[in-house]
Amino acid sequence: xxxxxxxxxxxxxxxxxxxxxxxxxxxxxxxxxxxxxxxxxxxxxxxxxxxxxxxxxxxxxxxxxxxxxxxxxxxxxxxxxxxxxxxxxxxxxxxxxxxxxxxxxxxxxxxxxxxxxxxxxxxxxxxxxxxxxxxxxxxxxxx
Length: 143
Prior knowledge:
Layout: E1 3-9, H1 14-32, E2 41-46, E3 56-57, E4 60-61, E5 67-73, H2 78-96, E6 103-109, H3 138-142
Helix pairs in contact: 1-2
């Protein structure tokens, strides 16, 4: 049950936010193999005064469309996270025309026992939703 918070400046359209959500969710389904119906995206549009950053970060110019994507989910390997980051960048460019330099991401990992939702059944061997395939066992995930 991943949770994604997207922080951006006020003024985006509902269509833009839907396209951003589509790109994020497709990456999560394709890379992390989450179930198609496991989508929780919260958009936080803030005033420019409450979205402070330098115009050049890590040597790249960032525009007023820069967004911070905070992803929260159970432990994944470094390789999965790198693949996910790249898939998100590709999808946001494709679906919402967001340039790579305007995407900032952070992953917050948590243990599976920290999640609850009615109807969700966790496979005790993997710690993930029982509908998910190709996920490591709990022992493999922590190694």
